[in-house]
């Protein structure tokens, strides 16, 4: 064994013993002797001969588990990014949301020696902060880190906060701790509703960010502030560079304008205020980016612009999704046989980005911002269309074919949908294939003493489809120079541990995992029920 490999072996071996003791309990009572497994040579990959006994399966599981965890530990040991976060105190906003949970899970799993992960949480829907956090930590997204590091939750410290309240409504004691401890801030909190009233969107997305920046300025050890925006913040441009575009109005002036106005007046003038932007979400995200540039001062700030965030590609496991927003709801509606037509351009780019790609880029950007301290505020367009394009027509094909092979339970009709850019044709099929069958089905439910529901489902579906039309009928071009530069800064170990190279993404495989993930994690349907679902589909 070479000297380098010996050193690596020793580094990993010390940490591996802890896992071996845990795994030994799992196969307790087995005749397999640990002594029969010789040390693995990192140079030659040699291993003792597998015993010919009834415990072969348990031995195989043990070896696979040790190999997986050993390789993961080696990557973390040699990773500059993972090493950076060890010993650091990190603040995350929006931690209870989809991206926030994946970010927190990846941070705790890849940098298990992170000092503290502070999360800003507010009471919601009758739940206290503690109840929300306890419920969140039971989520399946944490199963992998829970297995590797059973006490991971000890690193998490929730802070009662409200973004739209003065000083974020943080108590003096908590504020003092944050100001003296936090090294990195990840700002993921935002309202992502496309139809959010303008005043509310301004309060949450723009004013909330401004208040967080004011808090960050006072943090004594702050090294990086990473803001999650959207690739569609400047969708009024057809080609979008990794720069900040000035909005048509100063954010602070707009605050003053809407502060005294009645809600009904604001609603009436919203179309004129947002102008070329399709909704208040994209508009307020553009304002927030400009505000960050204005308020930057001496802070090290970076902005991440993901496109349409979808299910996970690899981490924490393929197909993880926890919400019906955007494409997820459309996929399920198509799989259930409810959706038969929608407005979309078959050839337009469906710029879908897996959530783990966004999170890996975000963590790497945090490391780069803190360590290299760029002179200018860096913006990273996190998109797929310019590098690995995928059209809405291709998505339609792969979604329908996946759900025909792996049908959902209790489907309404056989999955079959078409995309069209012709509004007249779309209206025709809505009447024939959506509303007419729905009214007949609701009548059947009434006659059998059940509550009608299909028309209500269709009304919600049509409303969501109308909000998405702007994005399904056209394409954009995003430059990705900064994202490519960031990838070039990584070691081979970091590229593997924090993979955001979407050139490696195979769309057919990803969409299949996405659909199966929606079936498993959103609808709570077990894969063992597929034969029965196929039989139901044939009826």
UniProtKB/TrEMBL annotation:
Residues 434-525 form the Fatty acyl-CoA reductase C-terminal domain. Keywords: Lipid biosynthesis, Lipid metabolism, Membrane, NADP, Oxidoreductase, Peroxisome, Transmembrane, Transmembrane helix. Residues 92-361 form the Thioester reductase (TE) domain. Its EC number is 1.2.1.84. It is a single-pass membrane protein. It comes from the Eukaryota. SUPFAM superfamilies: NAD(P)-binding Rossmann-fold domains. It is an enzyme of class 1 (oxidoreductase). It catalyses: a long-chain fatty acyl-CoA + 2 NADPH + 2 H(+) = a long-chain primary fatty alcohol + 2 NADP(+) + CoA; 16-methylheptadecanoyl-CoA + 2 NADPH + 2 H(+) = 16-methylheptadecan-1-ol + 2 NADP(+) + CoA; octadecanoyl-CoA + 2 NADPH + 2 H(+) = octadecan-1-ol + 2 NADP(+) + CoA; eicosanoyl-CoA + 2 NADPH + 2 H(+) = eicosan-1-ol + 2 NADP(+) + CoA. InterPro entries: FAR, FAR_C, FAR_NAD-bd, NAD(P)-bd_dom_sf. CDD domains: FAR-N_SDR_e, FAR_C. GO terms for biological process: lipid biosynthetic process; long-chain fatty-acyl-CoA metabolic process. One of its GO terms (molecular function) is alcohol-forming very long-chain fatty acyl-CoA reductase activity. GO terms for cellular component: peroxisomal membrane. It is found in: Peroxisome membrane. Catalyzes the reduction of saturated and unsaturated C16 or C18 fatty acyl-CoA to fatty alcohols. It plays an essential role in the production of ether lipids/plasmalogens which synthesis requires fatty alcohols. In parallel, it is also required for wax monoesters production since fatty alcohols also constitute a substrate for their synthesis. Catalyzes the reduction of fatty acyl-CoA to fatty alcohols. Belongs to the fatty acyl-CoA reductase family. This is Fatty acyl-CoA reductase. It comes from Crocodylus porosus.
